Amino acid sequence: METSSSTVGELNSGSRRKTRQLQKRQKKQYIDEDPLCLNFDRPCSHNSKKLCCLKVSANEVARNRKHLFKNKTYVSQNVYLSRLILPYEPQRRRPRNVLHSTAKPKTLSVTYFLINGKKKIRVQVCQKNFMAALNIGRKRLSTLTKTLFSGNIPKENRGGNRKKIAYAAKRRSVIDFIGKFPAQESQYNRMKSKRVFCPVN
Question: Is 119 exposed, middle or buried (0-12, 13-18, 19+ CB in 10 A)?
Answer without folding.
Answer: exposed
